[in-house]
Amino acid sequence: MSRPGSNSWEAPVARVCPCIPGTGTRVMGDCSQAAVAGVPELLSACRGLHTSAACCKNRAARVRVGKGDKPVTYEQAHPPHYIAHRKGWLSLHTSNLDGEQGAAERTVEDVFIRKFLYGTFPGCLADEVVIKRRANQLVICMVVLQRLAPSKMYFLVGYTEALLSAFYKCPVRLCLQTLPAKQVYKYI
Amino acid sequence: MEMFQNPGLKKMIFSIQYHQPSTWEASLIEVQPVKTESNKTGKTSGKSRKQVLNPRTTKMTVDQDWMSVYPAAAPFKPSAVPLPIRMGYPVEKGVPMAKDGNLELIKIPNFLHLTPVAIKKHCGVLKDFCTEWPKALDSDEKCEKHFPIEIETSSYVSAGPSLYNPKARTVTLKIRLSKLNLNDHAKKKFIRLVGERYCKNTDLLTITTDRCPLQRQNYDYTMYLLTVLYHESWKTEDWEKKKTEADMEEYIWEKSRSEKNILKTLLQIKASEKTAEVTQEDLLCSEEVENYKKSVVALKNEGDTKNNLSHYKEAVKKLLKLI
């Protein structure tokens, strides 16, 4: 913060100011307030940092509201704070219990598996992939659209199982459920 | 409704709902609208005609074998479970989502493979691999008599491909010292050697090892420790003869200061009374001295209880003939 009267200019620090979220209130950095107060030396040398409340909004796993024509599934419609209240967990394993090892490894595996499946079944995934671990077995449950021919689907299933078993050195099972179209929960 | 008369399925009826639906849908079993029967070759004629199989629920009989539908733990399959289950938080003026494509039903673990019939069958198969408990060991005392050593080990299973858990290598050995053949000196030496691992109240020695990387090695190490302790406690080293009174675990009256003092006092009394010469052995054997000895030993070993103190008082009075 540059003191009035000093010639040096310090870069203003961005402040997170308490403000009502949702309102577009602008909060000026203190530098510009000093300028507003009319200290002549600072008017030209100071630039205020404007922060607005929109940046503080939480965007994690939330589908933004539209005109009422956007179909969303149950999974998409509920933001993360509904986990354990209206939603379950997409990935089930025991590593997150007290005293258990390997939580980080399982999480990294999960991320890879989801990306891999998203690419292997192009445009076919109706909803998120559910990953369950039973002892060392990996059970991957998917809800798939009936876009591909059954023979192609079977090939992709076998390919995925073989490749993932080779990667993770454990038995991998894919359990598919096919739907003609995505299950819409509501339109937002 | 006939579906629900199957005793195996009856216990399985559950409907996870947050709202009661307005119409009672339990009586209706929805069938997926099917366009055509499946074609084995999978050839699409002209425009893509979706060839989707009828769900298995339409082909199920009332008295089917449920174990063939769910033989092992499997995720929820709406086409194989003939129950009209709904799950989910409903929209306003709506009902929970149906079972088709319902991710919530897939996420939760289900026990559809664990009907009582299935469990009974499974146990029946496992019984062939089991042996009966020996009839001769029908009480705890007999078990302890024939098998005095108790070994405790743990193995761990966890999600993930690795078998190895660092907690799996600890081995605990438990044995009562009364089962070991130790004389007085050996027992005292043994207890000194093991220190904290011995519990006086239960007479239980507990040795826990985890210094070796494998469980097998830790087990061998505990057995080795037990053997070494046993043999060492029977040996008497030269320096053990230098055991002083301060080293004693419990108070022994023979050759103690209390004995010397009391004998000196009594001899002086006898000498002053000018009675016949009484020898030390006679003094020691007399009843009063015996009483005194018992009270002193009790005081020193057990501590100052009301009983002990009163006992000591009586003994002293009798000894010095002060009553």
**CATH architectural group of the domain at 88-182 in chain A:** 2-Layer Sandwich
Strand content of chain B: 5-15%
Q: What is the helix/strand order of chain B?
A: HHHHHEEHEEHHHHH
The CATH architecture of the largest domain in chain B comes to 2-Layer Sandwich
Please give the largest β-sheet of chain B.
Answer: 4 strands, antiparallel
Strand segment tally of chain A: 8
| Estimated structural class of chain A | alpha/beta
Report the end-to-end length of chain A measured between terminal Cα atoms: 46 Å
Q: Report on the biggest sheet of chain A.
A: 4 strands, mixed
CATH homology group of the domain at 88-182 in chain A:
K homology (KH) domain
The fold-level CATH name of the domain at 88-182 in chain A is GMP Synthetase, Chain A, domain 3
The percentage helix of chain B is: 25-40%
Mean of all residue-level pLDDT scores of chain A: 81
C-alpha-based Rg of chain B, rounded: 40 Å
Shape of chain A: globular
Protein name (chain B): Mitochondrial ribosomal protein S35
Domain Small ribosomal subunit protein mS35 mitochondrial conserved (chain B): 148-238
Organism (chain B): Sarcophilus harrisii
GO molecular function, one term (chain B): structural constituent of ribosome
Can you characterise this structure?
The complex is a heterodimer of chains A (188) and B (323). Chain A has 188 residues and is α/β, with parallel strands linked by helices. Chain A has a domain of 95 residues: K homology (KH) domain (GMP Synthetase, Chain A, domain 3, 2-Layer Sandwich). Chain B is mainly alpha-helical. Chain B has three domains: 72 residues, no CATH class; 103 residues, Double Stranded RNA Binding Domain, CATH 3.30.160.20; 71 residues. Chain B has a four-stranded antiparallel beta sheet with strand order 1-2-4-3, with helices on one face. In chain B, helix 6 crosses helix 7 and helix 10 runs antiparallel to helix 11. Chains A and B meet through strand 5, strand 6, helix 5 and strand 7 of A and helix 3 of B. Chain A: It comes from Sarcophilus harrisii (Tasmanian devil). Chain A: Its main location: mitochondrion. Chain A: One of its GO terms (cellular component) is mitochondrion. Chain A: One of its GO terms (biological process) is translation.
